[in-house]
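Quick one, T. Sequence first:
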Amino acid sequence: MTESNKEPGKQIGGDHYQRMAVQPVEFIQANDLGFLTGNVIKYVCRANFKNGREDILKAMHCLELILQLEYND
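Structure tokens:
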């Protein structure tokens, strides 16, 4: 993001990401993380603000996919 545009943009549907000091999308992009790893971070970060248990289950599902697809487990 440029200095003049530190906000990652608008959020459609809620404010759960805008409450965070560092939004997940900024962290994911800055660390060049892949899709599944990015989803894990996103779901864990928003769990307390949005879907709670459901978001943790989604994160766990993504972790299971990482194990299957990247580590042949």
